[in-house]
């Protein structure tokens, strides 16, 4: 069976670091072209790869089967819509869109009979720590939850001159890291009853959100989603407490750092986490180390290739991504209003 030909749109951080190497590592896919205004940057990494000047060139090429959109966030909606209407399978980097109405429209387009595949790159479903936590919660070992906390902190004290840190829709830390934490929380815990958010600009000269602290209400407990650009260390990635045990995990999944360093996806030791989580039981028991399974971002693109051929389920559906965008927006409204808001189910 011939691999599906993929055109990658955008060769910034996401396109270069994540999408290009992951697509190239999946035998069922072939990285056939890149749409970029920086052909030199593409050809420095992929000398034989054609570089297209416009999305239209990819959409009118009958040899292109799939379009992967890794452009700046505001372009996700118009580019995904154009690609779907052109009959191409589509993968969109997170965040899916910058507005819930845009996400809803794309969702409805993707759910039409005979529509091409539309999937969203929520790659951190395949983080090592998340896979471990998913299995732990499924086992019921912690008992009824009383607290859930998910941190994604960085130490970046200087504001950089890039679109992600400008005052524009879809920029800032909440739209960068918030989609990961929301998607994971929705998978683990389901749709929340309420949301309360603090979104701030803490660094000198910050133009976009660089701190968030968001509470999702689940009745008897809260899920805390937290991110900051001014944490130099010491904060756990996950901490959960239940009626029977607690779980704490330090350290991030290693795949992003491996990709940044030019590592080969799927190579020996790929996605291995050397810092196990710890399960704490009531006294006098001591903490028990729990090694995590290896992380595997390649599984997302393996599933996408299978779904495009009707052989596997879509790994991240447009409807799932629409739910994330809706909560991103609701958190912004909560932060402006300064009050807790109800999370009404999506129609």
Beta-strand content estimate: 15-25%
Write down how many β-strands occur, each being a DSSP E stretch of 2 or more residues: 15
Largest sheet: 9 strands, mixed
Calculate the mean pLDDT score and round it.
96
Q: Write the H/E string, N to C.
A: EHEHEHEHEHEHEHEEEEEHEEHHE
Dominant shape: globular
State the end-to-end CA separation: 39 Å
User: Considering DSSP H and I runs of 4 or more, what fraction of the residues is helical?
Assistant: 25-40%
CA-based gyration radius:
20 Å
Keyword list:
single chain, 347 residues, alpha/beta, nine-stranded mixed β-sheet, six-stranded parallel β-sheet, 10 helices, 15 strands
Report what the structure shows.
It is a single chain. Helix 4 links the parallel strand 4 (66-69) and strand 5 (89-93). Helices cover 32% and strands 21% of the residues. By secondary structure, it is an alpha/beta fold. Helix 5 runs antiparallel to helix 10. The model has no long low-confidence stretch (mean pLDDT 96). The chain is globular, with a radius of gyration of 20 Å. The chain is built from 10 helices and 15 strands.
């Amino acid at each position: 069976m011939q691999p599906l030909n993929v055109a990658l749109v955008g060769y910034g951080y996401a396109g270069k670091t994540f999408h290009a190497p992951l697509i190239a590592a999946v035998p069922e896919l072939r990285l056939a072209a890149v749409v970029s205004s920086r052909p030199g940057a593409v050809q420095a990494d992929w000398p034989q790869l054609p570089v297209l000047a416009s999305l239209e060139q990819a959409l009118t090429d009958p040899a292109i089967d799939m379009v992967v959109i890794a452009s700046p966030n505001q372009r996700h909606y118009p580019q995904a819509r154009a690609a779907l209407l052109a009959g191409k399978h589509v993968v969109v980097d997170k965040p899916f869109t910058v507005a819930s109405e845009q996400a809803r429209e794309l969702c409805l387009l993707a759910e039409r009979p005979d529509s091409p595949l539309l999937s969203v790159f929520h790659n951190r479903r395949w983080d090592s720590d998340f896979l471990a936590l998913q299995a732990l919660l499924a086992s019921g070992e912690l008992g009824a939850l009383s607290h859930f906390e998910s941190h994604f902190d960085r130490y970046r004290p200087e504001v950089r001159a890039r679109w992600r840190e400008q005052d524009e829709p879809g920029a800032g830390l909440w739209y960068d890291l918030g989609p990961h934490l929301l998607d994971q929380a929705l998978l683990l815990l389901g749709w929340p009853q309420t949301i309360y958010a603090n979104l701030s600009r803490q660094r000198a000269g910050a133009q976009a959100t660089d701190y968030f602290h968001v509470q999702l209400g689940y009745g008897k407990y809260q899920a805390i989603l937290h991110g900051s650009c001014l944490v130099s260390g010491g904060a756990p990635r996950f901490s959960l407490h239940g009626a029977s045990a607690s779980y704490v995990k330090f350290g991030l999944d290693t795949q992003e750092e491996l990709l940044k360093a030019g590592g080969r996806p799927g190579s020996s030791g790929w996605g291995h986490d050397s810092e196990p989580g710890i399960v704490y039981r009531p006294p006098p028991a001591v903490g028990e180390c729990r090694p995590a399974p290896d992380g595997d971002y390649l599984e997302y693109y393996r599933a996408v290739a299978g779904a495009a051929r009707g052989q596997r389920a879509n790994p991240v559906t447009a409807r799932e991504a629409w739910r994330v965008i809706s909560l991103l927006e609701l958190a912004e409204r909560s932060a402006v209003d300064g009050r807790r808001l109800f999370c009404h189910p999506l129609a």
